[in-house]
Amino acid sequence: MYEQIAFYLFSMLTVILFLITVMSKNVLYAMTSLASGMVLISGFFFILGAEFLGVVQLIVYVGAVMALYSFAMMFFDATRSIKEKNTSSALVFLLGGMSALVLVLMFAAPIFSENIQALYPMHPEAGNAQDVGIVLFTKYLIPFEVAAVMLLVAMIAGIILAGKKMDRSLTQDMSVDMEKEIMIQKDAK
Amino acid sequence: MLEPIKVSLESLNLITLAPMLIAIVGGLIILCIDLFKENLDKSLYVMLTILILVVDFGLVMGLNANERGFFDVMLIDGVSIVSQLLIVAGSILFIPLGLTSKRFHEYEYPEFFALFLFMVAGFQFMAASDNLILILVGLETASLALYTLIAMHNRSDSYEAAVKYFTMGALATAFYAMGSAVVYGLTGSVELYQVAQTLSSRLNEPGLMIAIFGSSVLLLSALAFKLSLFPFHTWAPDVYQGASAPLAGYMSVVPKIAAFVVSLRIFGMYIELGVEWVRVIILIIAVLTMTLGNIMALVQEDVKRMLAYSSISHAGFVVAALALDTTEGNTSIFLYYALFMFTNLGAFAMLWISRHKQRRFDDRFDNPYEKFAGLINIMPMGAVIMALFMLSLAGVPPFSVFWGKIYVMQAAVNAGYVWLAIVMGLNSAIAAYYYLKLVVYMFLKEPVKSVDVVYYNLSKPLMVIIGFATVATVGAIFYVQPLISYFYYMISASGY
Amino acid sequence: MIGLSHYLVVSALLFSIGLMGVLRRRNLLMLFFATEVMLNAVNIAFAAISHFYNDLTGQMFAFFIIAIAASEVAVGLGILIVLYKKQGSLDLDELTTMKG
Amino acid sequence: MENILSVLVFFPAIAGLLGFVVNKESARVYGVTVAAIEFFLSLWLWFAFDNNNAGMQFVEMIPLIPDFGVSYYLGVDGISLFIVIMSTLMTLIGMISMNIAKNIKNMVITLLFLEMTMVGVFLSLDAIIFYLFWELSLVPMLYIIGAWGGPLRIYASIKFFLYTFMGSLVMLVGMLFVAYIYHDLTGVWSFALTDWYALVLPVSYQLWLFAAFFIGFAIKVPMFPFHTWLPYAHGQAPTIGSVILAAVLLKMGTYGFVRFSLPMFPDASVIAITPIAIISIIMIIYTAMVAYAQKDMKQVIAYSSVSHMGIIMLGIFAMNAEGIGGSVFQMLSHGIVSGALFMLVGVIYDRRHTKMMDEFGGLATVMPKYALVFGIMLMASVGLPLTIGFVGEFLVLIGFYNVSPIMTILAGTSIIVGAVYMLSVYKKSFFGPVTNEANRTLQDLDAKETISLVPLVLIVVWLGVHPKPVLEPIDNSVKAMLSFMDEKAITQEAKEMIKVAKSTQEIK
Amino acid sequence: MENLVYIALFAPLVSSLFAGLFGMSPRQTFVGIVSSALLFVSMSASLMLAYHVYQTGAPIYVTMKEWISMGDLFIPFGFVVDQVSVTMMGVVTVVSTVVHVYSIGYMDHDKSFNRFFSYLSAFVFSMMVLVMSDNFAGLFIGWEGVGVCSWLLIGFWYHKPDQSREENPSISPSWAANEAFIVNRIADLGMLVGIFILYWNVGSLQYSEVFAALPQLSEIILTTAALALFIGAMGKSAQFPLHTWLTDAMEGPTPVSALIHAATMVTAGVFLVIRANPLFSMTPEVSFFIAALGTFVAFFAASMALVNRDLKRIIAFSTLSQLGYMFAAAGLGAYWIALFHLGAHAFFKALLFLGAGNVMHAMHDELDIFKMGGLKKQMKWTYIYMGLASLALAGIPPLAGFFSKDAIIETAFNEGTLILWIMLVVTAGMTAFYSFRQVFLTFHGDERYKAFGIHPHEMYKFVLVALSPLAILAAIAGFFQGGFHDFVTRLLPEYQMSEHTHHLALVLGAIVLTFAVGGIALAYKKYANGLKRDEKTENGFLYKLLANQYYIPHLYEEIISKPYAMISDLMWKSVDLKIVDATVDGIAKFLYKSGDGTRKMQTGNLSNYLNWMAIGGIVLLVIAMLSAMLG
Q1: So what's the ipTM on this one?
Q2: Domain locations in chain D?
Q3: Nearest residue to B243 via CA among B39, B46, B97, B448
Q4: Do A87 and E625 touch (CB under 8 A)?
Q5: What span, in angstroms and rounded, lies between the C-alpha atoms of E170 and E168?
Q6: Contact E605/C95, CB-based, under 8 Å?
Q7: What's the predicted TM-score (pTM) here?
């Protein structure tokens, strides 16, 4: 019963919040509603018994990602409402509606099957965090490590791209080649 | 409390990880070297990268086919070995293009090479797994690195390219994730061999077709983006144009090989299961892609952009072979890209040596056709070599791409798709026009502007690379046999 | 009783909302928000399927999607920063030098 | 000298590569020397050729891609022997007569590569190798037309390339399909023609494959309505380009019909007789009329080529030794005669820089030698007995008469309409008073031109009077091919239509 | 004997090549002399062969070498010297030797003197090949060879410009040459078809084998073969409707007209019919058609000659008319008579032409007989020669023409074809009239040429001497009729008049003679005392019709030449360029345009790209949904 109430409440709220995210002209509103929506999604996770995921959702999304976005927003000075020449809403709603229709139809299909045996079954007695931990560090250790590399890549990327060195473009600067030649000449001397 | 899990080290089959591990560790080493001593020359890093990749290549060679490792996440079958070899070989061939006589922004970063190696590792993971999670993670690792590498060229075009590529990539990721979710919902698994098993038993359940088709379509949208298939190709020309020539050339080959492996595993599975619909859709997309790519390439003013469209068209060719789902068809994918790689390496290297820091011929383009006008008078060997590459791309025998084309067409004919082979043939004829256009400019027109700028960026290492590409392009006839027999053996051994 | 389909339908709706955002947004930052929405929608689907199959794989996938989303934000914002430095704007309509 | 064929194919290519080193001023002499050596090599081939052997000789086979059935497979028989010799001869003659100031070195190198591809096409017995040389031959020609041609040269060269390329790709699909069938039946991949000959295909397959090969060959021939690239190519090409194009490249198409279509698809060929004959007749009459309407001398010769190719096509589909042998001979004759005619047009173009006939008139008075040679070639072109042109045309018509008298009569109008346009060219340019002052001081043939034209005149007469040495090997090979086709044909109609020569029957 | 055959055959070739060597050098008299000598050699050899054949009665077969051998087709260079061919050889070599010698004088002032001899000898060689060949292909070689030489010789003065048809009915030598060649080619196609029919039904082209196999062939094949061969003959012998070229061919130098367009080449058609007599005698319908056409042409040509003012054209029409006679004879089965008339005609017609040449030479190439008159004073010998030849032509006894022509007319009577007989008789009268109209207008009456400031003079002596053999032959050839009959009927079918005709022979001869004499008398009355022009007649319809050759050349120009040129132009400009080529270019342009169109989707705007991607995905999803729902 609680589950039902929570589900419908969360559903309605997320839909509304994400619609605001998508429709709002104000970055701040959009971002705030996005953050709130994500919190609510973690609520879904809790309902579904994926507590660990819910926590990660809160930490990573609401914590890290939204923080990043806020910083970015400040950097881009995007607090004021933004003038966008949005794509004609007819097309947007048509496409969005269509995709919603098709996806809903698809998911309305009897996807669920009783016959499917869980490959990595949950153990309600042990708790979600332990379950996740065991699977993550056995079966999904490799993706986990690769994800680490991915994060490293993202970090390096962020550092480089936002770094000062990017301010002077060697790609278009012909003088750097001169410098090099001069240095070579110096060495020769 | 749960039982602690005991796993023996042998069962993990760690060797399957070794090649990627080398690349990742290599990337880390480069980062460390930079920490210890700054301002080392790019040549060092290029050579280090090559060395690391060579070791990587060697390790891939040493892998045994049809093994699984690490809780079955890693899949080392013939396809993954072949594709990894191609990925690594492609990387080895393209990275020395950094050794130009002029300095370009990205090569001044040691991180460039680290990212490059991580990217290679990412592609290798894509190729060496049938787990949708690892595929996605590998894909993202590689893609994120690639976006960065593009942006690091550091001029407004490359940012634009990176943004376009990135944003569309993010959308594609969403499609991929949604598709995987549907697959997961259908089968309770994201490991393709499990998926195939479960799906085959569920295939006859009523009302499920829509979900099966839907899952395939969502995954197809995501991979079609990577493979630059119509109508998901729109990024390709802009990104090629914005990226530096070596990277553009690289993008036209290596990521596509990785994406083809994934497509092969996913759509091969669908077709194998008897979902003919997927084959039809892929064929339609393939025909549209090769045709539209071609006719758009006809009207380009920039050689690099033209090559971008042409590589779209080539991808259309190959994806048609994929849809055939025969051993020959699958072999032809790799054969085609192996042969295409050499030619494209040469073509993009030629663009790269002619790269000038300023756009002296056109405001919008680095490599307008006019730049190559009368190249025969300025740089006869260069013109001849470039013409060879163009003819090869056009599919004139005996140059390398011809053998790829003919094998693809043979595969189509063997699978009973003669009309497809004819469409391919006619498309090749259309394609010949824009390749010829460059040849015409080089051989039959008078130079437009001063002479020196055309090979502004030339250096000895690049000459070696171009020489290699030329030899590989011209002499294809002599190594096609071993390639075919090896690829065919590996691919049939892995059951495709 | 709330079944799997309910969750999936919510997921589908959210995915479509995200898609609409991607379609209509011209500001890159806002566009990124929309992609986040799409990924989150998928996560709901994974978590729900995982719950109903009593299988952990879905949660794993959702977990990795979160990681990917985070990395994408980092790289994406990095690119946006260089772009903003150069262009002074995040408007897509001003980002059309390469075309045809 | 077992590998003389390889030598023939690759000698010019290697010489072409080495040619990059040769000094610009000496390039021409180098080219002539190489072409001469190549020509003598081909003559040696003839000398060593066994006239009584109707099959392939000097066969060389090296597997290149065994998994795919591609091998380096060369051989020569009576049909290809003389086309090869003609190719080397015309290259030599063209090289001698060449009158190009710009970039002569590039021209020489290009020609040598072209020679390789030409010889290669006629000697290959592997479909893929054949296709390889076939396609490769487009490239040097593209360059020759495009770099040394007239004002529309780029349009013309690209049109030439793309048109033929398009057709040959369809043909390639056909080849792949044959290979597939071969693999299906035998389990072995092979593109070797001799293997393919053994295939007996159902008629429906034959028809489709015939159509695929037809497109490839027909565009090259060029058959109506695929001929429109030819006037542009000829009109824009430099003399040497036209000579080679008309003399050799067009023959690739007709040679392809003889080498591929007939023996591989006998039933389909028999079914195709009527449509092809109709197209050929259209080619003969229609293009002759178009030729008559031309104002440009070279265009007349260009269209006349199409008309003559119609005769050749007709003979190939006569399905008897007279017709096919006549066609092969006519290929040689057309090669030499039209090559010579193009050279002759080049002669006047070099002097006056125009090819418009209304600019001339009365040239016979000013340039008697030129007029004489032109007249001889003209007569050969209209098929005067005792010139090379008659033998082929006569054999073709007599051969096709057995198929359809009515169509033969229609095709036979070629001797009338041919005379109409050729004589009108001659009258407009050579007869009448000298009206244009610019023509009054024209030089007659110089030494270089004489040296290059006189051998052709001699050949025209020699082979017109004594064609036996050439006809005999052709005859043997064609007869063998026909009896083979007859055995292979499935349908009764085909068996009836394919006429095995009595002499071959007696041997059996 | 073989050697003699080769000498007879190749001496003219040697002569031609020898003269050809000097073809581009200035005039060399010795070239003419050597050529004539070689022709004399050929003539001697021919006559010796004739004697030999006469003596032994056995034909000589010579096979020089193989020419074409392909499939089952085998064609050698084979020659036969039998009664028919040796007759022809004799006629050809005699006339050509005379013409060669004559030409030395006639072409005296022409700077292309050497070239002329080369062509002329080449013609003789071709003609010899034509008559001597023992197979149809060899015949065709000669057939085409003489065609080319005729082309070369008609167009000998190629430098003359084109004129309008009113100024010069044959426009220009080069035009006339082309016309002759092309018209002949039309007929040659028929001949080729005949050859093809014979080959595919007999399997050989050797006369002996073909004729031996004829009885096995069906009637339809025989008829078509005969008809096709006769079409060939029609072209070469300028039978209606392919006759226009012959009068235009008079543009050539007069010796050429004499040799080619009177004595030898034009009779090749007759020769063909005679040679292939086994075939024609088996096809009575075709033969009758030949006879009827011959008769018609005889009459038709004679009618045109009545009013013509051109010296050479009159003779040309008369040639045409006489060819008609020959065909009539051949068609009626009297092959030997045809051959006899052929020989006789060759002599007197060559003589007539050469005489006309003298006149032209004297008159500075003036040809209009209305501008001549009274030339007999200045040109006595020529007058005698031409008068003699005209008498022979008119069929006045005892000259050659009488015997041969009379025999033909008698044959027509004998065959019971009265209409033919009447026409032939009337034609004989017309022949006499126009011949003497010409003679009188040229040699008698007032000296009209003086008004044009011309000073005529007689031809060189040696030329006149050289003409004497012809004159003698024209005069006496008729007496050999009996001998000739015995000689050739060993090969040719015998033709004897029936008893009935034999009885009437004198009467018939008298009727013909009456007509001939009547014609001469009429001519004498009208023209012997100078030209009296009659405006009314000249403007009459009939006169104009005849003077304009029944408007046939105009008609041909309007319905053949002009439409052909127009259609050709249309084919090129409208069909080839606007349809065929434009389609090809259109496809290319369409592709290029669609490239331009589709590249618009590449706006450069990321938002559009994302839209495309989303559209792609959604469309695929919708297709997926639809196809899943529809099954």
Answers
A1: 0.91
A2: 272-508
A3: B97
A4: no
A5: 5
A6: yes
A7: 0.92
